Amino acid sequence: MDVLACTPEDGLELFERRIAPLLDDDRPSTCNQCHLAGIELSRYLQPSPCETMACMVDEGIVDLAAPDESLVLSWIDRATPTGGITAETIATEKSAMLEWIETVAACGEQMCEPVDAPCGRAPDETTCAFPPYVYEQASLDDPGGCSDVTLELVWREKVYSWRSRCFPCHFDSHAEDFENTPPWIATGPCNSASLETFRNAELAGYLDAESPERSLLLLKPLDEELGGVEHGGGAKLHGDDDPTLLDFTYFLERWAACQ
């Protein structure tokens, strides 16, 4: 078995060999194919590979604790074979990205020293930590009742906690990148950002009190074969047992019963 090379020089060689070609605008790749209005890996590009990785981690699209669960890999999977992009292209690019993430994760500070300002900005201690991209239902000790405080708690735990599945297209922090996409998901301190997002969803008509199962909060991300409606970002929920769908349904039924 080959010994893992963990020097900064080895990291640079891996990046230039497997990742840099994905950033070439003249080369058909999943990273410059738009699934909404242009998610491109190049928007995370920083002066060095380690700074680029730190930016991707900070933005929540790479999980060094669980590389194969990184959000960026699911973005690559969503690519459509067309215009020079083949199924083989998609598989190769996913493999390259996973290798890079796994290598940085395994090597740690031997390869990449900590970055003080990921994405070129200092960490904001008031920002709500980006949730892990996992598929487990949220646990909640629901006190019952219809007080505003209770419904806001259920929303935060059952809906806002899943916001990573909508990243970055509907985030207000990325509104300039997606001009034709409603930035209804607020960022900032957790409680206030969750509450603002809740109000945005209500005002936008994403919640249906008369038929909660017909709420756009559910139907937009739901696979059209399961009754969903057209969604520019593609289907996110692919089965009736999807934990996100179950959590959204729980909230919507609780909320609707209180209206």
- Biggest beta sheet summary: none
The residue fraction in helices comes out at: 25-40%
Mean pLDDT: 82
Total number of beta strands: 0
What sort of overall outline do the alpha carbons produce when their principal axes are compared? globular
The helix-and-strand class reads mainly alpha
User: Any idea what the radius of gyration is?
Assistant: 20 Å
3D structure, described in words:
This protein has 259 residues and is an all-alpha fold. It is 37% helix and 0% strand. The protein has helices spanning 8-19, 49-58, 71-77, 87-107, 148-158, 190-204, 216-219, 243-257. It starts with 7 loop residues before the first helix and ends with a helix. The model is unreliable at 32-39 (pLDDT under 50).
Compact description:
This protein is mainly α and 259 residues long.
Which helices and strands, and how do they pair?
Layout: H1 8-19, H2 49-58, H3 71-77, H4 87-107, H5 148-158, H6 190-204, H7 216-219, H8 243-257
Helix pairs in contact: 1-4, 3-4, 5-8
Structure characteristics:
259 residues; mainly alpha
